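FAQ

Q: What does a record look like?
A: Structure on top, sequence underneath. For example:
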């Protein structure tokens, strides 16, 4: 199938990202697999090509605005869903060493198919809930960087994500809308978890000028063993 990729190329240019023809082909194959699988399971409500390009692919890649991704970073994408932002970041920056983690095994099986079909290396798809996986020595405080596009308040996300980050590493949350109050409410909890909000980078995405933010949290000290709390507690009763 033929696609008009001018909008994609313009968006990449805006981000300062150069892709080879082969990398662009990988994005198109990923798009086709996503749409095909979406017919039988709910992966995304966004299916129109230009919208997927803007709201999934370019949004995922916009991390480059706040993080140098050309180094071999050990990287966790928590609550990856259909593979965002991890798969786009892996295609664009092959040197990243990425773990995709999601609580729904059907999504993980789809992501494994994508990894195999695209021939991606140094990337794994792991089925696990954050509350349990963060207590596993294999994953706890093992990552230089944890990212998440999951929809939850920053306090809840921090409780899920910071236990995976090694001291000296970072948690970066993709957010939309006005987050100032949310950040103020989260500062105390983030400190308890061993982190500090060091930057909030606000920007507009795409021709529709959607308001987006990156919340950057440095991990200064080890997360106490009591966190994350049992399933459901971080969202019902944020720190």
């Amino acid at each position: 199938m033929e696609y008009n990729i001018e909008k994609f190329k313009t968006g990449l240019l805006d981000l300062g990202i150069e892709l080879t023809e082969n990398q662009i082909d990988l994005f198109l194959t990923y798009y086709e697999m996503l749409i095909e699988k979406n017919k039988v399971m709910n992966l995304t409500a966004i299916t129109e090509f230009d919208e997927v390009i803007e709201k999934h692919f370019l949004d995922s890649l916009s991390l480059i605005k706040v993080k140098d991704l050309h180094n071999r970073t050990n990287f966790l994408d928590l609550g990856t869903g259909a593979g965002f932002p991890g798969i786009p970041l892996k295609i664009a920056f092959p040197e990243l060493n990425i773990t995709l983690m999601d609580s729904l095994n059907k999504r993980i099986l789809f992501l494994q198919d994508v990894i195999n079909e695209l021939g991606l290396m140094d990337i794994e798809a792991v089925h696990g809930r954050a509350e349990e996986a963060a207590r596993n020595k294999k994953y706890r405080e093992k990552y230089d960087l944890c990212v998440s596009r999951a929809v939850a308040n920053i306090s809840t996300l921090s409780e899920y994500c910071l236990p995976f980050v090694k001291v000296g590493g970072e948690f970066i949350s993709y957010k939309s809308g006005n987050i100032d109050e949310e950040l103020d409410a989260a500062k105390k909890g983030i400190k308890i978890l061993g982190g500090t909000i060091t930057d909030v980078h606000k920007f507009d995405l795409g021709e529709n000028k959607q308001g987006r933010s990156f919340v950057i949290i440095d991990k200064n000290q080890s997360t106490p063993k009591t966190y994350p709390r049992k399933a459901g507690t971080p969202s019902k009763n944020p720190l």
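Q: Is there anything notable about this one?
A: The chain has a mean pLDDT of 95.
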